[in-house]
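Worked example

This section walks through a single chain of length 282. The input is the sequence exactly as stored; nothing has been trimmed or padded.
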Amino acid sequence: MTRMALRPCCGFARERRKSAAQHFVLDMFKWPPIPASTASIKISLEVDRSASMSTTGAGGIVFVRAASVAVFLFATCAHLHGQDARRSEPGRFDFYVLSLSWSPSFCAASAERQGGARGSSLQCGERPFAFVVHGLWPQYERGFPEYCQVPAPRLYRGIVAAMLDLMPAPHLIFNEWDRHGTCSGLSADAYFETVRSARAAVKIPPEYVNLQTTLTVAPADVEDAFIKANPGLSQEGMAIDCDKKRLREVRLCLSKDLKFRDCPKIARRSCQRHELIMPPSR
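Given that input, the structure is written out below as tokens.
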């Protein structure tokens, strides 16, 4: 097997007799793409002296099996491959995902977690909600930015109050601004106006507007209904999110000017279950 020779770390030769297994560290700098918070990657490799070490004095060479290093580096590269070089810079992204949550599914799951009690929140209270906005998320072609400004610019409660008709949970609005809105490159006012415009660009299929009884659906049927109601939308431009039994969300990809566009990597993550239920609005 091919071997790769590496110089031992300082003091390694003096300590090598203490144990049959030794550790050394490789510092690898400027290895793209590296997250902004990472100055270097330290790879700790355990070397079996009997199999892969020469002990010819203080200047001895440590041999590490090249195949072992290659496997480790390949795994590390794979992890970093999804990182976009722009590193969460506000305003630098490729498209949006508009996530529409089926509110009755959220409330049903919440009630199950609380032992059947209906929550007292606005979203799960007396007023019926159907599809509500979960968020408008800036995306890269591979991956997505988040928390682009820490701390986030202040979000005034007047903006929160104005968004409750589309996003009926104040804590959700604050969270979406902190995590996703700060990556849009827009002010809070402009971002939530964009959220409203994105929601207005999508027509909800009529069969889901005022659902009075539990509906059993296939994910493909929901996609077809949205495609029929929204010219320009395709199966490659959306995804269905689900839990073990319920439809949770419909996610639609939009360009920066809020036109439908394809996003194959998002679409491939669509729910693969054969049947889902949509609890009624009431």
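What to look for: The mean pLDDT is 78.
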